[in-house]
Design brief:
The structure is a single chain. This protein has 324 residues and is of the alpha/beta class. Helices cover 36% and strands 21% of the residues. The protein contains eleven helices and twelve strands. Strands 3-2-1-4-5-6 form a six-stranded parallel sheet. A six-stranded mixed sheet has the order 7-8-9-10-12-11.
Length: 324
Amino acid sequence: MHTYEQALQNGKQFLLEHDDYLVVSHVQPDGDAVSSTVTMGWLLSCLGKTFTMINEGDIPGRMHFLWEAGNIVNMTEQPPQRKYKAIICVDCADFSRVGLTRHYFEEDAVILNIDHHPTNDDYGTVNIVKSDAAATAEILFDFLNLFQVAWDKDVATAIYTGLLTDTGGFRYANTSPNVMTTASRLLEHGVDGPYLAQTLLEQVTLPQVRILNQALSSLQMTDDGKIAWVVITPDDMVACGAANEDLEGIVNYPRNIQGVEVGIFFKVINENAVKVSLRSAGKIDVAALAQTFGGGGHVLAAGCRLEGRLEDIVATVLKQVNSQ
């Protein structure tokens, strides 16, 4: 049996053998993370399993329409009062991406790891990792089809959301024929594609416009025009009234400038830490680059967190990009 097919079957057995699950995704969850979390919750509910969905960080407001998204616990506001033995991690490229939720894993916890990042290090007891999948949601589409459950609009909408957001509205290079076939089948279940495109990709908040304006005012480029970057500080966030979800997509602006090979977004966390988002136009593998700094991601989209002063981190990252 093919390795991926066997992994799916192993994942199915994991769900059937255990109960009382903790479902987690990566810190500061995006569309694929949230949609994968609720998709897994939906499946567990159909199987009659007990479960808790949890995350470190807020669920983006525009995702609250998804099935039970409002019941995903933000552990920074409502810490669990116990630990769990059976864990399901979705869309976490490595174990560190589960963040502080790891404190609610029993020491001998068993973990089902479902992910699509090529930098995933197979940290689970059972691993379903398909690096050529456009989104974890694409893997979950295959996974759900192993079970005798009746699909409905709620779960179809969740999976479509993950595909839509991680492919940039079906525009990125990861938009494979299988993605489009899957999207078509989800539409047959009643998914409202135009509504999701408008809500998730087009509609913006006023703070989002303000923080984008601030980011673009910081734009810098190397002399050869091949690297472009922007910076946002905590003071910028306060001045614009922006939340983390308002930063999504900013890194694409420097990347999309004609002639730029790598676009970078430096988000200052505090005076000693910076989150770095990297986007490639195609020639440079930014996942490999991010791994040199302890991060990870995809060939065209990756990130990492670095300790130190902003000026030093910018210089270090630019030097590493130039060496590629």
